[in-house]
Amino acid sequence: QKEVEQDPGPLSVPEGAIVSLNCTYSNSAFQYFMWYRQYSRKGPELLMYTYSSGNKEDGRFTAQVDKSSKYISLFIRDSQPSDSATYLCAMRPNQAGTALIFGKGTTLSVSS
Amino acid sequence: NAGVTQTPKFQVLKTGQSMTLQCAQDMNHNSMYWYRQDPGMGLRLIYYSASEGTTDKGEVPNGYNVSRLNKREFSLRLESAAPSQTSVYFCASSEASLLYFGPGTRLTVT
Fold this sequence. Notes:
Helix content of chain B: under 10%
Order of helices and strands of chain A: EEEEEEEEEEE
Number of helices of chain B: 0
Oligomer: heterodimer
Largest sheet of chain A: 6 strands, mixed
């Protein structure tokens, strides 16, 4: 079992839909959880960041961490064509010197 | 504030040629990383440098060498390029756990 699993999609939704993107993981030591957005032919950019469990909201984006289920989610409300991108989850333990482990990314397409 | 910059943006090499990918950051971050991204494989860590003067292997270090020239710069060298090294290479820097990526170098080895 890979440490981080993420459905690659593609996921296609109409404009205005609520999008749910998810990752599962196997290492219970993971404490830092991030979501990156990557537009075509660009570098990944940090979108959301949470530490340990709980929710975090930033505008139309909400990140959730459920450590008991080893499951993290990114919700996008009122999705826009500009949200069309690949979304990568990433995580690591609370231990100095350890590198982030990335999911393979989910490709999202929002049609107008 | 340019963030993380990478040169070149594109490169085509013949098998056996060597080249160095350059990376610089102006955010005064201690840690720097080199990743490669391939279709279906996601981002894979090649090498990282937790601080100036230190480097460590990541998941896929074979065929690569790195140099942490100073706090700002971290270069990746391919001594003898192989077609399997055709990929998009991303440099990143971080403070705490947050990584900031450069725009990438698209490398093709024929």
